[in-house]
Amino acid sequence: MAERDRLKWNRKFNEMPDLLAPRAPSSLVARYYNEAPGREALDLACGGGRHTLFLSDKGFHVDAVDISEVALTKLAPKVDPDRVRLIEADLDSYTPEKEHYDLIVMTNFLDRTLIERAKEALRPGGIMIVETYMEDPENEKRDANPDFLLRDAELKELFLDWEIVAYERFWNETYEKYRMKKQGIVARKI
Ligand SMILES: C[S@@+](CC[C@H](N)C(=O)[O-])C[C@H]1O[C@@H](n2cnc3c(N)ncnc32)[C@H](O)[C@@H]1O
To answer: Atom 4, ligand 1: which residue's CA is nearest?
Structure first.
């Protein structure tokens, strides 16, 4: 599975380099990163690194994990190596250090078991921001794998015993190829 993901994403990024173009952070990350009680961050499936770069700029130390060496190689010259650690790893099995982070960001990527592993990696009081595509009859991409789409209100169910700082449903950014509904949550570990 991991090898297939690696090849798939490397091919995508080689064929469509625009996918790694500089991008603004998601609105949820930009509005809520400051809720984090400290400055240790983890960016899961960092891709082009929009959140890694944004958070590092805001004074965070960031561990940025992705399976694609094409994405990480492109990101490497843009980061301050004193603040950012790029980690090439398969998130199907990667287990981040326990209770180490103040902020964990996972956007446009869905692995429900990873959310559980990531919860363990947050310090009490830490903030997790998860944002990705969800089921919607008006989604333009009709053949999206349903395993990678959130069900309605699913993020709220995944963070039942957490303090919910924000929960939103919205349409994706206009630069994306297909118009897709998204769901995002900002949750604090109690
Ligand atoms: C749609 S991009 C999202 C990038 C970034 N989070 C953002 O929102 O801009 C999905 C990323 O997940 C990474 N990815 C896919 N499967 C993975 C896996 N098993 N382990 C680690 N990264 C993976 C891809 O390489 C790609 O960079």
So the answer is: 47
Ligand 1 centre distance from Cα of residue 7 (Å): 12
pLDDT tens digit sequence for 17-35: 999 999 999 999 999 999 9
Predicted confidence at residue 1, as pLDDT, reads 58
Residues with CB under 6 A from ligand 1: 2, 5, 9, 45-48, 50, 66-68, 71, 90-92, 107-109
Q: Mean pLDDT for the chain?
A: 97
**CB-based contacts of 51, cutoff 8 Å, min separation 6:** 25, 26, 29, 43, 105, 107
Of 3.40.50.300, 3.40.50.150, 3.40.640.10, 3.30.70.890, which CATH number belongs to 2-15+22-188?
3.40.50.150
Q: For the chain, which residues make up each domain, given as ranges?
A: 2-15+22-188
Beta strand 40-44 with 181-188: parallel, antiparallel or unpaired? unpaired
